[in-house]
Amino acid sequence: MDINERNDRTKNALAAALIKAMENKPISKISIQELTDTCGIRRQTFYYHFPDIYSLLEWILDRDRALFNSEQTKLLCWQEYVLMLLKFMDKNKKRYVSIVNCVGCRFVERFYRGELSGVIEKAVAYYFAGHRTNAKYVAFLCAYFTSSLTSLIGRWVVGELDCTPEEIVSYLDTMVRDTVRGAEMRLAGASSGE
User: Fold this and answer.
1) Per-residue confidence of the chain (194 residues) as pLDDT tens digits?
2) What does the alpha-carbon distance between residue 54 and residue 18 come to, in Å, rounded to a whole number?
3) How many C-beta atoms surround the C-beta of residue 135 within 10 A?
């Protein structure tokens, strides 16, 4: 086994230990010693890979995001991507509740904003295809929906929003469609002189 494989195996073992520990207690109460004991490695080995537990957490979230990036290319539409993300977070609810309790709801924005922004841009572009639109307005809508979605996901993770992943995607789809219809009506009214 080469050094990269050993490093990956160690990082993955530490990640699994942290994820497991986060199911039972907040990240602020988890010690590096606890993780290294679980993995059967020395403390120094942890510090070889990560300066602290929060760096390990960031590595886990980056790994999750990389998974979504690779899966996104297989998806047909933005609804599938958002649904996949929500189902993953729902399946790993304890982990994400612990993360939100530790670093706040902004973790969604920090780690998933780029992907969610790209998904929202595709959705808005799809719904506005073939319509006269103001590019500045479309950019505003993309920013608005991205910010709203990242905030909404953070609130949903901690249980402030009682919806299934499917309901959230359906509501988002309805909002985007209604926004496009409203813009169409506004533009039609403006061109007819009303």
Assistant:
1) 677 788 889 999 999 999 999 888 888 899 999 999 999 999 999 999 999 999 999 899 888 888 777 776 677 788 888 898 899 888 888 888 888 877 776 777 777 787 788 888 888 888 777 777 778 888 888 898 888 888 888 889 888 989 999 999 999 889 888 887 787 777 666 665 55
2) 10
3) 7
**The one-letter amino acid at 121:** E
Residue found by looking up tokens 């309790």 in the block: 101
Phi-psi region of 162 (alpha: psi -120 to 50; beta: other; left: phi over 0): beta
